[in-house]
Amino acid sequence: MLRESLRDSRAGRKSANSRGMPQPSRQERERQREVRRGNRQILLVTYCITIIFLCMAGFLVYFMAVQSQEIINNPYNKRQEVLAKKVSKGKILSADGKVLAETKTGADGKDTRVYPYKDMFCHIVGRAVNSMTGIEGKQGYPLLASHINPFTQLANTFRGEKSPGDNVVTTLDTKLQKAAYDALGNRKGAVVALDPSTGRILAMVSKPAYDPNRVEQNWEELISDSNEESALVNRATQGLYPPGSTFKVLTAMEYLIENPDSYSKFRYECKGTDSFSGNVINCYGREQHGSLNLKMALAKSCNGAFAKIGTTLDVAQFRKLTERFMFNKSLPVDFEYNKSKFSLSKDSDMGELTQTVMGQGKTMITPLENAVIAATVANNGEMMVPYVVDHVESDAGKRVTSYEPKSKGQIIDKWVAEKMNKLMRSVVTSGTGYSLSSLPYEVAGKTGSAEYDSEGNSHAWFVGFAPADKPKIAVSIIVEGAGTGSRYAVPIAKEMFGEYLGW
Amino acid sequence: MDKAGAALKLTELFGEYNAVGVIHSVVVELSKYIIIILFAIYTWHCFTVFMGRNEERKDTIYRRQNKIMYVIHFICSLVLFLNSLDWKVLIIYLVQLVLLVFVNKAYIYVYHYASKLVLNNMLMLLMIGFVMIGRISQGFVVKQMIFAGIICLLGLFIPLIIEKAAYFDQFGVAYAVLGILLLALVFVIGEERYGSRNWIKVGSFAMQPSEFVKIIYVFFIAAFLAKSTSLKNVVKIGIIAAVHVLILVAEKDLGAALIYYITFLAVLYVASGRAAYLFLGLGAGSAAAVVAYHFFTHVQNRVTAWQDPWGTIDTAGYQVAQSLFAIGTGGWFGMGLGEGLPTKIPVAESDFIFAAISEELGTFFAICLILVEISCFILFINIALKMTKRFYKLTAFGLAIEYIFQVFLTIGGVIKFIPSTGVTLPLVSYGGSSVISTVILFCIIQGMYVLNCREEDNVERKPKRQQSR
Questions:
Q1: Which residue of A lies nearest to B46 if distances are taken between CA atoms?
Q2: Residue A174: closest CA among A118, A227, A108
Q3: pLDDT in tens, A424-445
Q4: Which domain holds residue A159?
Q5: Shared domain check, A117 and A254
Q6: Is A334 within 8 Å of A389 (Cβ atoms)?
């Protein structure tokens, strides 16, 4: 309409000329010029402002379409209660169709959230009271949206009933979860199982756990934490532990990358103890491993050999490798977690270097992060982002939102992943993971005993995957304060592989 | 009466079967979509009415827009009534209806030449404001109606005043002095609200002088620049404008300071035709903003709240975070009038009314609202383009810029597009000073246009008269 009014004034002039009508007087022309003076500038300013407004409207659309779902899932947003008046919060289901959480309406009309598996899924499924956590928290709004037939909803309104909210279907496998939960027994620790080719979280256990059905009754005890159990913490994603010898997987990986042609020539003579610029490194129990190549160094988890490897590595490049594996980085996952930490740098001294490469030192890792490393090796070097929500469906079973596997790209070259796969198999065939060799398929892995105090007490670790030639499951297990990985963590892995892949 | 009370009353009346409750749910649910569709049609007409020259078709469309406004007003008021079953809501509705119909008829008569679409938009925005403010607080909407009613009535005389005072462009100095004095009055009898010392209290009425001065301020700039854009003159006006802006900065009224500054630059650019002034001014403004950021904590707070409202959700970021929760949870179609929690947003009835609207009436409605604001602005510009007298042209343009820039600041702040500056959404937000000054602004632009058309007629008639002699 702006152009039009300009056209008006111009066209008026032209037509006057062309039709041979009397020329407008000088006075008239001057008046016209006076009217138009400044109009070009006015139009320019107007265009700019209109563009800014369109950008602003675009920003609003972007906010709604992309950001809003994540943003509204915030404990400061009190609108879930409003939605819950119209919609009965949906179920959280396992991949095999079992109910992990549902809403039951009591005789008094009051809704309560019920968790049939009690404390088995408490951390990953989360709770809906006393600050929401886990899937309950992050999927709060999808669970309170109803996508059933609008006419049914209308009919429900007429009957004065709430419409059923959408159900969240997870990637969790109840049988595998139970196997891990039982195998961990009464010990503190955590278990994570992933599907390496997709990043689906198959199981996630953290102990001590708590009963989400009784959170409000037990809340005082849970937060006062008088037994120092930290039951509210999801150790699988938030627990930061020294990685112990499981970190040798990354050290070996870096050595392969830096010595693609000569790694097979690596030799080390283990006498049970060694000294690097005055820093003494002992093998576990001062065991003498004798002459080792890279494969046997990993299989026997020889500290001396890895300290030696460490002295040859390009520290800056090693740091980059660990950061590609998401150390010191935020993970794109939708549950609570802590960042794993890797602090080695060019300025680090020899003591820190030799400690770090064998998994002690200042490095801290979550069981989830360790599972991702194992899964990436299993998936030929391509990292898949771990995720736990497969899709959201209406109560009638119609899909509302689907979550596809997301790749973080090729983190290491395929040949490095394949070589690591072989090296990790040797841990099972002829090293610290030997008890897994009785399974009817090949297993690859790495044990670890992460010392956490000066008295030599250690957490037991195992990371690995199976079947080694076509991995379907990657696991990461930590048992706090137990002792060696081979004795306490490997049996749990065995239970899980057996449950998932057969004995 | 709250909802629980209403429910209780219903069970008394109808027993267990909650008939009105059911009607209420159905009406709220359906009305959301109907309102969005109607408002979308209205908005569509705002931009398409100028296609084609058929005057009759235009009139039909304008009348259709009017009908849409009345229907939306009726539906919203019905929902508000069902929400509370409070008879006062019906009375308020009827009073609003009388006000809207009266203003519509009277303005068509008084502003005969003027744009019917501007009038439609003005009424539409007022109506949306009435509904939303009424939903948040009945006390507020009654006050808003009183202010709107009085000023709309007075607005009928603005063309007369403009016509009588044909020498409006002769009082440049007076405008400047009056404006600065009024702004500075805040330091003498002012009080602080929401962190800005920009209110004065007369009796039981509190008002914001900056809202009124902004109109005189445009008169002052236009009056001087219409005469001359010589460097000496520009420097002189620049200094006086800077005094205005600095007083506002001292009052911590950042939004108004920005509006005044940008308006000065835009009018100067149009009057002088020199882009250099514009770039120089924008550069100096940016530098001043950086300096202000380093020296004033309240500026820093606004910026941090904008960059990361989640990290500062307990302090500076609270308001913006709540606003985004409201918009995000409301979704594209809204929660339904009365079904959301807009009162969780601090000052939802005023500076953050856009978030409240978006939450309950939906993002689609909110986007249409943005488009209607653009439509108003383009119409103002259209009028400015047609103005003959330089003073009129610059005034119309300056007022248009003030209007749209204020809309930009408030909506941009609410949706976290820019840092929030705490200004109202003209005509929609609750606030006497704001609604009064905006209605005056609309009336002046329309009134000057009426005058301009009459003068045009005179110019065209004069030569004829000479010939006949």
A1: A1
A2: A118
A3: 999 999 888 899 999 999 999 9
A4: 80-171
A5: no
A6: yes
